[in-house]
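Quick one before lunch.
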Amino acid sequence: MSFKELGLDENILKALSILDYKEPLPVQERVIPYMLDTMNLIVKSKTGSGKTASFALPIIQKMEIDEKLPQALVLVPTRELSLQIKEEFDKLGSFKKIKTISITGKQPFKFQKEDLQQRTHVVIGTPGRLLDHLKQNTLNVDKVKYVILDEADEMLNLNFIEDIRSIFAFLSSNPATCIFSATYPEGIQNLSKEFLKDPKMIEMEGNVKIDEYFYSVKETLKNEILYQCIGKYKWDSLIVFGKTQARVEAIYTYLKDKDVSCNRIHAGLMQDERFSCIKDFKKGAFRVLIATDVAARGLDIMKVDCIINYDMPSPMAFYTHRIGRSGRVNEKGMAITFINEYDNNHVQQLKEYLHKEIPVEPFIPYTISKQDKEIISKSTKIVENKAKELKKGRMTLYLNGGKNKKIRPGDIVGAICQIETVSMEDIGIIQVQDHQSYVEILNDKGKLVLKQLQNRTIKNKKLKIQEAR
Ligand code: AMP
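Model of the adenosine monophosphate complex:
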């Protein structure tokens, strides 16, 4: 089945084609039709299966663009995931002028309040902060027709369930509710019994197949063999797991010295640093991420080409968590575990834990060529280029006046539409804030509109107008 056959709009199909989403993934094929029919759903599905687009696409399709109040609410466990989902909505909805915002804790309430006063189609956020806004009347959910609980089991682990219950109590519009969860523990079952009338259950079976290799590697040779593996396979995205912060730093320093495109993440780094590291990794700004388990847990890292267990996982359950991150959409995963001369007991434990026999093989030395070196020292940047393509022909203008000068979106539209050869079609998202406004101009007409507006008034007021930074 194609995206077109699923009944999606031309504007959405255009974005999908630029993003190179050729056909719906299994979870999308199953979820989209039900969501377009506004049915309640429980979807058992994992990160990396394409589940974000499975709910974002039907929501984008069903948004009434002129409605000022939010029509969809997406609840997520973490700020990172919230921003990631916002990004996916923005990309998929870029030709439909869908306005989304991310509302999470530890960010200034005041700015969020201001944002929520603007026309907003989709609000994504963490339950605690969203509830604060509901209690303070700064978020109006009267028009909400979709509620999504993403990674519901994680929200349960983080004790967000009571907040979610309280949020449901604010919803009077009887929205279609969809719960996405990798597992279906009792807490989620109770929640769905309480709030979801006749939900449809969708279970996405099976994991992606992962090829698992165990290499017998002397402790002192691990760095060299890691480097040879990277040179041999030239993965676009690889995560290397080390057991401690110091270990991760040491691997990072070694690979950096060898000019491998890499970065690292562990709990010893500042939150902001960790966040931008993950963001860069997702964009393909570097190839190899070296991580501790603690830092990688809870962070929404996309699926990668390969996982290398530089150190044996401990406890054993980490093995499954770690290698589960391998296997990009519709592709086989790969997981390599280094086993040193002291690891025999661990290997036995792991075999027992996994209930399977894993042969331990010696790594065949590989000589890295000049060409290999060149490739692994460069980033891939695939995603960034696609996102750039979606922004082609768009320019956002900044106006130094907003509500303080009694400007409304209609005034800005009116002024722009007076310019010859410019029409409504060329105007994207408009934001009128207290002291400033932003308007997005489409179809390569930004420069023209900027030049013309600089010589005109808006609501009889002369405003300073420039390209937004
Ligand atoms: P998710 O499970 O939502 O985190 O998605 C995993 C990855 O799959 C993301 O990087 C998406 O951009 C990508 N993706 C989602 N849908 C498709 C599709 N139909 N074709 C190709 N890639 C997709």
